[in-house]
Amino acid sequence: MGKKTKERRKHPRALRHVELSLVGEEPGILNHVDNISCSGVLCHTAKKLPMMSKVAMEVALDTPRGSSHEIEHLECQGVVVRCEPHLDEETGGYGIAIFFTRMSEEDRARLTSFVDRHIAKEVADA
After folding, report:
1. Around 41, how many Cα atoms within 13 Å sit in the side-chain half-sphere?
2. pLDDT tens profile 65-95
3. β partners of residue 110
């Protein structure tokens, strides 16, 4: 039986695809997002981003509104805290971890609600 390890993250992460764009970077640099929390995001990029570089981001969250969905746009800033090349030649690119450094309290509350909602769904689906 496998040994469970204690979760080290302060904030839980939702394994949910979100639309994220890096402001000021050329189109196509961002491949996809692996997970997101109220403190940061793990994504994949086509080029290396220097450690501790500051990035501006726009995040689009798919949020239920009654029987329909609405896209909420958040603006935030962050800093690259990890940049690792993919070892898989087919995938290529880089795994990038970004820590959020600036986000309005309203946007952070909306992001936290989004993450909590999707973590609850992931647990229910498991």
Report:
1. 26
2. 777 788 889 999 999 999 999 876 666 789 9
3. none
Given a contact cutoff of 8 angstroms between Cβ atoms, the answer to whether 108 and 72 are in contact is: no
Report the distance separating Cα 72 and Cα 103, nearest Å.
Answer: 14
**Listed residue (1, 3, 12) closest to 122, CA to CA:** 12
Residue 123 burial (CB count, 10 A): 8
**Residues 86-118: b if buried by 16+ CB within 10 A, e if exposed:** eeeeeeebbbbbbebeebeeebeebbeebbeeb
pLDDT in tens, 22-43: 888 877 788 888 899 999 999 9
Element (DSSP H or E) covering residue 124: helix 105-125
Look up residue 115 and give its two tokens: 């993450």
Longest Cα separation, the chain = 48
CATH fold group of domain 19-125: Thrombin, subunit H (2.40.10)
Structural element, H or E, at residue 125: helix 105-125
DSSP state, residue 28 = T
